[in-house]
Design goal:
Layout lengths: L2 E5 L15 E2 L2 E2 H11 L4 E7 L5 H7 L3 E5 L6 H16 L6 E4 L9 H13 L5 E6 L2 E2 L3 E4 L3 H6 L6 H7 L4 E5 L3
Parallel strand pairs: 1-4, 1-6, 4-5, 7-10
Antiparallel strand pairs: 2-3, 6-9, 7-8, 7-9
């Protein structure tokens, strides 16, 4: 898989630092997520952050991710994701068949094996261009999209989130049962 976007623009904590910078074992929450994506051999990992949590940039870069700053407050996760998609387009010129993974940065239990399962399903079932994990019948994260969805996502009504977009594209969506 070529790309992963980790929206982190609005993540903060009442503990004196961003929650993504909180320790989890021997590293931080953010470092756990990036490590899982690197282990799954995601080529380009992008962490999208707001200036109010600028200290996350050094963590992300030292863990092997790119950093994109959202200069103005976004309109939620979707705005943050769209900002990251523009950043990736400008630098890497993705093709329609390239895949991108939406992985919320505050999910430290993300496993490389699940990312690999999603990628395998995407490659095995080309009729599906959105792939997401399910556990006990419930949808979860991360979600894999074909790059061809970027333009329609941008045209989608701004008040609707990506979950609504996925629901509207049910015939293009494959659910992959996972172990956790």
């Amino acid at each position: 898989m070529k790309f992963a976007i980790l929206p982190a623009a609005g993540k903060s904590s009442r503990m004196g630092r961003p929650k993504l910078a909180l320790p989890l074992g021997e590293c931080t929450v953010l470092e756990h997520v990036i490590a899982a994506l690197r282990q799954a051999e995601v080529e380009h990992i992008l962490v999208v952050i707001g200036r109010h949590v600028a200290e996350l940039a050094a963590l992300a870069e030292s863990a092997g991710a790119y950093v994109c700053f959202v200069e103005t407050p976004s309109t939620g996760m979707r705005g943050t994701v769209e900002h990251g998609l523009r950043w990736l387009e400008e630098r890497f010129q993705p093709r329609p068949e390239d895949a991108w993974l939406l992985a919320p940065a505050d999910h430290p239990a993300l496993e490389a094996a699940i990312v690999l399962q999603l990628e395998s399903a995407y490659n095995t079932y080309p009729q599906f261009s959105i792939v997401l994990p399910t556990y006990r019948g419930r949808r979860g994260h991360p979600t894999l999209f074909a790059w061809k969805h970027v333009v329609p996502i941008r045209a989608y009504p701004p008040e609707l989130g990506l979950n609504a977009y996925v629901r509207q594209h049910a015939t293009q969506t494959l659910e992959v049962p996972v172990h956790s």
